[in-house]
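We emphasize that the prediction below concerns an isolated chain of 130 residues; any contacts that depend on oligomerization or on bound cofactors are therefore not represented. The input was used exactly as deposited, without trimming of termini.
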Amino acid sequence: MTTYAIRPFGARPCTLVVCRGCCCGDAAKHPGTDHQGQLARLRAAAGASDGRFAVRTSDCLGPCGQANVIVVQPSTEGRRRGARATWIGWALDDEATDDVLAWAQAGGPGFADPSPTLELQVIPAPATRR
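Result of the prediction step, given as a C-alpha cell string:
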C-alpha cells in the first residue's frame, strides 16, 4: 500500500487571506483607509519573513458588513496543534494591520494568541450553505 503526505510539497506556513472583493478594499466604502498600502505592507512583511507566513487575496470572503476582512489560516503545524482559521473583521487601520502582522510573525493560530485588541475584531466565519 502506498501512502502520501498531506502536502507533498512541504509544510504550509501561516497564511493571511485578504479580502479584496466588492466591499473590502473599496475606497468608496472606507475612504479613510489606504487599502493598497495595507496589502503592500502585508505582502512586504511576508516576503521578508523567510517563508514563515504568506499572503494571498480573495475576491470576496462574504461578511461584507465587517469589511475589511482578513482570515488568518494556521500553518500545517498549527493545524496539528488543533488551531483553525480565525476571521478578523474591521481591519481598516495601521494598528489592526500591525496586530495581524505581529500575530503572523509569531506563528499565528496554534503558536500564539492574537493581541487583546485583535481578539475584539474576531468575527464568525460565514456559515456554509447546504
